[in-house]
Amino acid sequence: MDIKDILDNSDDMTAGRVAEKYPALSDDEKERLFAMSVRKFNNDDLNFDAREQVSGVEAYKRPKWYKAAGIAAAAVIAVSIAGGGVMYLKDHAVKQPDRAAENADISAALEGAENSQSLFTSGTEKKSVRTLMTAPEPSSADKEDVYHLLLHTIDYFDSASGRVYSYTVQNGCANMTDFSISMSEPSAYNYRRTYKIDDISRISEEYFSECELIQSTKHYCDRTSYYDTDELNDTHSEGQGICMKTFDELYPEDKRELFDIPDSQRVSYDADGKLNTILMPDPTNMVDSSISLFPQSMAMGYFSDTDLWEIDGISEFDGRQCYEVSGTASSSYGEQQNVSDFNACIDCKTGVLLKFEGYDSRGQLRRYIYTENISFDDIKDQ
Questions:
Q1: How far apart, in Å, are the Cα atoms of 258 and each of 72, 266, 296, 371?
Q2: Among 309, 330, 380, which residue's Cα sits nearest to residue 135?
Q3: Reported pTM
């Protein structure tokens, strides 16, 4: 099946699902939902404690089934807009911020989310069991193996928690995000704090205590419900509807041939040398932690040309075995990101991007990702 067939099939399949599942929203609902979507895209973070183990680990070096649903995701967006707006939740009920008692209840629930098996009782379903892949032995892995891991991290774990720091020089702000996600349950928690900083070399929780906090948001969602809290503005919202899909719903067994695109075909260049990529649906559900947990965009941008980077060795990072990698950014992607050279630490068992530093031609740090206390509940670390 070629790319054109995938696009055609995805459009038909997606249009039917959207028309069937999501009724049109009122103008007020569209306006509120659009504002929430923009806010969540710009800042989101999660922290839900998923203790349930996932069984069924199978020793495969390379999963074969998993590749192209960014196309279907794009079709969802296009069809939704054509039908009258982005239709994310149905039968949602927003609590007004002046309802102080409810606001306090939500805040308390969010505070305890990381120690709770489930924040909600409605719509609770039995968690599906996924068959996880096993990464190649680091001593025998080559660059294509590492690139494959980066593109397909979500094949190698199901639930994760930790903290990720992120920085881009464009806005002079850094984020500290605590997160916890479970793709099979599904559930996700994200607690993001954004600070105005002037010294990238000092990024840490201790340094942030000296900096201006400009945004602080918490987001929790499971299959049927969500909570959002804006701590600085003392507001919150909550809703019911289709908030998350399980991994198996995003990548159904009988449709996996649609995602079977070789790694080499995920990236192409147009006549002007512009990079084009095929993105998969993101079952981790959180933008901030996805830059570490499911870094497919950065993988294709920095690592698709294996002639431009090297595996320098294997070391330990925050208690985890990782590949140490360094390289030069491609001309097209490097110019877009204002990054000339980079180094990274990539988890050997999952391909998760534990650390990334991107420098411009003058040696100035332009892009920074750093994780700490990361753990995976469903893979053996020994």
A1: 10, 13, 18, 33
A2: 380
A3: 0.69
Residues 40-59 have pLDDT tens digits of: 433 333 332 333 333 333 33
Q: CA-based Rg of the chain, rounded to a whole angstrom? A: 21
Residue 248 in this model has a pLDDT that exceeds 60: yes
181 secondary structure, DSSP code: E
Residue 321 clears pLDDT 50, i.e. is over it = yes
| Cα–Cα distance measured from residue 342 to residue 302, given in angstroms and rounded to the nearest whole number | 9
CA 224 distance to own-chain centroid: 19
Residue 258 has pLDDT above 50, yes or no: yes
How many residues does the structure list for the chain?
382
Across the range 63-80, mean pLDDT stands at: 36
**DSSP state for residue 311 in the 8-state scheme:** E
Nearest to 341 by CA among 371, 314, 310, 319: 310
What is each CA distance from 13 to 18, 95, 121, 256, in whole angstroms? 9, 35, 31, 13
Phi-psi region of 80 (alpha: psi -120 to 50; beta: other; left: phi over 0): alpha
Domain range list for the chain? 3-376
